[in-house]
Design a protein that fits this description.
171 residues; Glycoprotein, Type 4 Pilin; 57% strand; OB fold (Dihydrolipoamide Acetyltransferase, E2P); 4-stranded antiparallel beta sheet; mainly beta; 8-stranded antiparallel barrel; 8% helix
C-alpha cells in the first residue's frame, strides 16, 4: 500500500507491506525491513531496523497524529494517494459548496460523530476509522451541514471510499 506522509512541511511517498510483526517500507527509493512489536500500552512500539532498536510512540492528541522516535516528537499527517489528489482539488470542491470526507486507507469504521442535519465546524471530527491498529479521527476541512452519512459503525471501508458528505451553509 502507498501512502503520503507529510512531516515538517515535506511530503514523502511511503510504500509499506506488513505481515505479522514484519514490516517492509520503501521511502524515497530506500527499502527498509523492520520488526515491530506493540508494547503493553498500545501506543508504544519496539521497532528493530537494520540491527538497531528504536522506541516509537504513536499518539493523536487533539486529532493530530504525532510520532515520537527516540525521544523526538514529530507531527505527522498520513494521506492515501487518493486523498492527496482530493486535497489538491480541494479549492474547486469547496467552491462548489460541497465536501466529501473519504477513508484515507482501508479500515473499519469504529465511531460516527455526526448525523445528517448536524452543523459542523471546520476541523471538527466526523468519523473514526481504525486502520493498522490505529484509530484515525477524520475531520471536515470547511464545515457546514452534514447531508449524508454513507457508512455505519463496524463497517469495513476501502481507501478513498466516501464516508460523509457536507454542504456549506446556504448551499
Amino acid at each position: 500500500m502507498k501512502l503520503w506522509v507529510a512531516r515538517e512541511g515535506h511530503d514523502t511517498e511511503v510504500e509499506f507491506e506488513a505481515r505479522g510483526d514484519r514490516l517492509w517500507l520503501t521511502i524515497e527509493g530506500r527499502r527498509l525491513e523492520a520488526d515491530c512489536r506493540r508494547l503493553w500500552d498500545g501506543e508504544v512500539y519496539s521497532v528493530l531496523i537494520e540491527g538497531r532498536s528504536h522506541e516509537v510512540r504513536v499518539s493523536s492528541p487533539g486529532g493530530r497524529l504525532e510520532v515520537t522516535l527516540d525521544g523526538a516528537t514529530i507531527p505527522v499527517e498520513v494521506r492515501h494517494p487518493l486523498e492527496k489528489l482530493l486535497q489538491a482539488t480541494g479549492p474547486a470542491a469547496r467552491a462548489s459548496g460541497r465536501e466529501t470526507v473519504v477513508a484515507p486507507m482501508p479500515g473499519l469504521v469504529v465511531a460516527l460523530r455526526v448525523r445528517p442535519g448536524d452543523v459542523v465546524a471546520a476541523g471538527q471530527p466526523v468519523v473514526v476509522v481504525e486502520a493498522m491498529k490505529m484509530q484515525n479521527e477524520l475531520a471536515t476541512r470547511g464545515g457546514g451541514v452534514v447531508t449524508d452519512v454513507l457508512v455505519e459503525e463496524r463497517t469495513p471501508v476501502s481507501a478513498g471510499q466516501a464516508l460523509v458528505r457536507i454542504a456549506q451553509a446556504g448551499s
